[in-house]
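Form 12-C: Joint structure prediction
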Amino acid sequence: MDANSASNGNHDADWNTDDELEVCNESFSHWGSTSSGQEANGGFGEASSPTNSTKLIHDFVGMGFSKTMVVKAIEENGEDDSEEILETLLTYAENSNHILEKDTMLSSLVDMGYLVEEALTAMNNCGSEAQLSELTDYICAAQMVKDFDAQLRESPDEDDSTSVMTSYSYTMPRNDYLPREKKRKLHKFQQFGRKWHKGSEKKHWDEDGDIMHLPNPMIGFGIPDDPWPIVERKLPEVAIGPPYFYYENVALTPKGVWSKISRFLYDIEPEFVDSKHFSAAARKRGYVHNLPIQNRFPLLPIPPRTIQEALPLTSKWWPLWDKRRKLNCLQTAIGTAKLTERIRNALENNMKYGDEPPPHVQKFVLEQCRKWNLVWVGKNKVAPLEPDEIEMLLGFPRDHTRGGGISRTDRYKALGNSFQVDTVAYHLSVLKNQFPNGINLLSLFSGIGGAEVALHRLGIPLKNVVSVEIAEVNRNIIRSWWEQTNQRGQLIEIADVQQVSIERLDQWISSFGGFDLVIGGSPCNNLAGSNRVSRNGLEGKHSSLFYHYVRILDLVKTMMGRDR
DNA sequence: AATAGAATGACTATTAGG
DNA sequence: CCTAATAGTCATTCTATT
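Section 2 - Result
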């Protein structure tokens, strides 16, 4: 049984009670309700005028459908309405694809000796694109958790009060992560100084062996409706709030970066989550926080979790041999028009009569589609996502980044650097019961306000928000969102984290009575894999601003009376 | 025409896992 | 060895405004 689902029911009722929330709800209502029947004039007219069946067959086969399916569809619908035929063909394709894939996977698992129930749960949670090995790992790990749990109940453990660092009861066995002694304060700034003196030898500080490994599947301390029981984790004493804090960055960093981040954030083990479990696009991120991890609940409505559900119009053009159901990570740069043309040419020059393109062409096209997150928008035509589609995939209201004089390029950049709202909101949902009257928020590196949007969509009132964001266009986006959602609290905008001084913090804290949450994701420029120029790690020009997050969090903790 | 801002397209290495 | 993924940077070109 899953310990989670019991807690999912009690919060959704709150969703529509507030006026402001309804505005928000409206902007999401296009999901799932979009009908795909009204367009299809563009580029399709030629097929319907001389209606003889050979031409029809030729046209549809040219679109990538098999001849037998086309003939069958024409028999069913007659040859007058090409719209109807196309719909039928798409239904065939969808069904046969899904059923085939699902069925073979399920029977393989059952053949291997797993229970049908176990197999289905695993398939449900790992997504329809999951490999067999991923599914078996999932089932195996779930079994281990069960056993471990049973063992715990048999022999209640004795407390090891000798160590300040209490152990983490995470659901996966980990021998790779060894929390350090708590000599932090002095030690970490000594280390900080040492890094700057490194000269010729590049990776010296990675050599001490504490490399953090990423979990597989990447579901952190749990995702909605997953069967893994959540065990209470024990935080180091110094890490416990107030304030709560929540730090985020890319999961795939150079070696040693996450160990260091964790070391600076009170040795808390990062929670690595891939947002593909919350949305139709992947987003592998690490989160370090001191929030409770029990009784989380997801944002409603549940967003579409496949490309086909999120972007229904692309299904018309999606070839059978493109098996993608999830998008890759949404980045700041998009594919070029030249690439679209290259792909179109490759397909058209190799499209034999009534057949799929040859394997080497398929391979090339699929590689490029994955690399640049391209979707099918016409016959043999792929294109990058539109900004509003990215907004939707990330959980923002439609047109969140639109207007205010922001360029298309800057929208892509801002969105590519943002939170996935559903994922973050799931982690923050535990605050709702604790703060019925709202929270005071310190939001560092706010970007386009992912944290604010997540809290608002959770129905957690925002009392005082100090938002620190360097880009003016992003501050404009947050301010206009603040006004449009009729926030009653106060929004204080600061441009630079380096200007967040002790004096200012003291002033805010004494005037608000403290911050309830310090949230932020520091720049990943120098950590991200796509960076070919300056992937310098945590000490890079931008990414080293991480240390300001640590500085400010430490100050807030100290001023609020803990950790002295 | 001069200018600034926006758009374009070419540019790998480091991870992890099999 | 292989496949696969990856919140990006930069010089150049285009375009809108003056």
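Section 3 - Comments
Confidence is low (pLDDT under 50) at residues 1-51, 155-208 of chain A. Residues 82-111 of chain A form the longest helix (30 residues).
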